[in-house]
Amino acid sequence: MSENTPELPPVQPPEMPRPIDRRSLEDRVYEIEASAEEAAALARRFALVAVKSLSARIELEPDGDAIHAEGRLIARIVQSCAISGDDLPVEIDVPVSFRFAPERAIDADEIELEEDECDEIPFTGHFFDLGEAVSQSLALSIDPYASGPNAEEVRKKAGLMDESASGPFAALAALKTDN
Which domain of life is it from (predicted)? Predict the structure, then answer.
């Protein structure tokens, strides 16, 4: 490499790899459960206090060169309250639906999905990673603004709440009266 070429960070392997060969789908239903080490690595990746458990039951259905996946993800996580920073235990139980498609089959110009369309995940060769897809589904299920039972008290102590004002525009109203 030349002196002016920035060095790229190393590519991190997935925390919970579950490679599947699309040519030989032995089972149609796959059960995935994160090990303690995988759960700890996912907690670091998604800036969580902990991933207590993560499991998914996914049914795979061949669709030409692609594979349609549908199932359910269940997780118990601990995240920080967005307001107080307190540990906040959260249970996630969500349906998941995605489609693994050969990279050449995905139109790069069509990246916006309608609400009823499932995510398309590209793969090259004959293998796709079901574990990484489940990990990404977990990330999408985490509420980044989750607040715990002490959030209101912390807001009041910080002067972010007026007893007489509430709602999304209360802070804006307070700014207006300061001028």
Answer: Bacteria
CA–CA separation, 169 and 161 (whole Å): 11
Query: Which residues, at least 6 apart from 80, have a Cβ–Cβ distance to it below 8 Å?
Result: 49, 86, 87, 88
Query: 66-80 and 50-63: which strand pairing?
Result: antiparallel
Nearest to 147 by CA among 64, 90, 77: 90
User: What percentage of the chain has pLDDT greater than the value 90?
Assistant: 54
Could you tell me if 163 and 55 are in contact, meaning their C-beta atoms sit under 8 angstroms apart? no
User: Cα–Cα distance between 121 and 142 in angstroms, integer?
Assistant: 20
Which sequence spans correspond to the domains of the chain?
Answer: 19-148
For residues 84 and 150, is the Cβ–Cβ distance under 8 A? yes
Taking the complete model, does pTM exceed 0.85, yes or no?
A: no
Q: Which of 128, 144, 146, 13 is nearest to 63 (CA)?
A: 128
> What CA–CA distance (Å, rounded) separates 99 from 90?
27
- Please give the biggest Cα pair distance in the chain: 69
Q: What is the pLDDT of residues 6-58, one digit of tens each?
A: 787 777 889 999 999 988 886 799 999 999 999 999 999 999 999 999 999 99
